[in-house]
Design brief:
The chain has about 325 residues and is an alpha/beta fold. The chain has two domains: about 170 residues, Rossmann fold (3-Layer(aba) Sandwich), CATH 3.40.50; about 140 residues, Response regulator (Rossmann fold, 3-Layer(aba) Sandwich). The chain is built from eleven helices and 13 strands. The protein has a seven-stranded mixed sheet, sandwiched between helices. The structure holds beta-D-fucofuranose. Beta-D-fucofuranose binds next to helix 2 and strand 10.
Amino acid sequence: MIMISRRTALFSTLALASVATTGAWADGLPKLAVKKTYKVGFAQTESNNPWRLAQTASMKAEAEKLGWQLVYTDAAGSAAKQVADVNSMIAQGVDAIFLSPREEKPLIPAVMAAKKAGIPLFLIDRGVDATLAKAGVDYVTFIGSDFLLEGKTTAEWLVKATGGKGTIIELEGSTGSSPANDRKKGFDDVIAQNPGMKIVASQTGDFNRDKGRQVAEALLQAHPEANILFAHNDEMAIGAISAIEAAGKVPGKDILIVSIDGEKDGLQAVIDGKMGVTVECNPKFGPAAYAAAMAYAKGDAIPAKMVNTDRVFDITNAAASIADSY
Ligand code: GYE
């Protein structure tokens, strides 16, 4: 009884994006036995920012709460190491694998290796190339944010704030990752519909604060006319704020900054007037990920995508939200 009501509560925080696809019984997806406790793997992509640390903490805390054994790996930013990490989990005989794939294509072999080994795999946070691996067929499901929507929401906030005018520098996330691909598309599509707005440069800062600072410095020099900067995550936005200040300009005044994640430093930058908006991307996957595995073990139909509902943080609500941030 307790377990059922708990699961219902967890799932109520997720908007189910599509109709149920396949269950444990169909299409050759490996099954998961109903057990009191599991040994599961979580393959993290890197640990270089507060978002990643919050995600890892959530996966570890929830495993501990459930009394599950967690095999944790950190690929340190290398897709090749992450494939090796998943192979090592397979060799250790985990019951299920939770993978945050660094990039869309290079992690396909890891997804297929788990399937071949008969171990159900759940993608959390980032996706893989949908033409090469399918939810409900090759892996169980994707749990995470709608990155297209995050990019679109950021651009729409910007259009409203500027009246559809501005010259934009874009700092992209890690090349080949699903959040970088989809945030760019969601954002750029809206900007393309506004003739008064132009993206003059778009370059990767690898979701990293210091790389974001360095790339912003170079792009600001090359495009002194830019008055808007869109960063695919808060870490790069914070790096860009340093670059803007070092160039003798005032963030939030000379250059309007918009971003995604909603980490503590991002919310503080909004409160300080240095950043206009940060669209939330929730990193706390533990409860939803393990609840999905338990539901799958029971034979419940699992949707192909389980999409987190994200909020928008600007000056109207940042101060009220910072205490819960990471
Ligand atoms: O925005 C970023 C992190 O994959 C959604 O990766 C995630 C992104 C997040 O490193 O800060």
